[in-house]
Amino acid sequence: MSLIFKSIGYIRTKEANIPRHWKVSHVEGEIVIDEVYKEGLKGITPGQRIVVLFHFHKSPEFTKEYLIQKPPHKDFETGVFNTCSPIRPNPLGLSVVEVLDVEDNIIRIKGIDMIDGTPVLDIKPHHDPDK
After folding, report:
1. What is the CATH number of the domain that holds 66?
2. Which tens digit of pLDDT belongs to each residue from 71-110?
3. Is there a contact between 123 and 109 (Cβ–Cβ < 8 Å)?
4. How confident is the model at residue 131 (pLDDT cuts 50, 70, 90)?
């Protein structure tokens, strides 16, 4: 089955050295939302955490050789579904970021682990079960 997704916007950051995971990132930048979707930002507020679903648009095409990978921070190989690798059968990424500000169609965020120009597919609220 094939699925088609449309980008709702993109990541904008000047940072060249992007951390490999949002949990260790302090990088700031913006999610620039296409104007047609900006009303959908209503209710997103500074201090809130949001889940950003995005496309690993610079990843190489997935082949069977990538089923087993060695994460750079581990001493062993493991299956692709046990990694955060951008090389996946479906190149989808998920990050939880902190909202710094929302103005017009731009969400300023902290915790970026995406490169400049990364297509954003969706945004969802993050619900912390400990709060």
Report:
1. 2.40.30.70
2. 887 899 999 999 888 999 999 999 999 999 999 999 999 9
3. no
4. low
Q: How many structural domains comprise the chain?
A: 1
Return all residues near 89 (Cβ < 8 A) that are at least 6 apart. Answer: 62, 80
Asked if residue 7 lies in contact with residue 120, where contact means CB atoms within 8 angstroms, the answer is yes
Q: Which pTM was predicted?
A: 0.89
Instruction: Report the Cα 52 to chain-centroid distance in Å.
Output: 5
CA distances from 6 to 34, 84, 98, 111, 127 (A): 11, 23, 24, 24, 25
Task: Report if residue 4 sits inside a domain.
Answer: no
Measured in degrees and rounded to the nearest 5, phi and psi for residue 40 equal -70, -10
Containing domain of residue 46, as a range? 9-125
Q: In angstroms, what CA-CA distances link 59 with 92, 106, 111? A: 10, 26, 21
Q: Single out the residue of 27, 26, 44 nearest to residue 101, CA to CA.
A: 44
Given a contact cutoff of 8 angstroms between Cβ atoms, the answer to whether 120 and 37 are in contact is: no
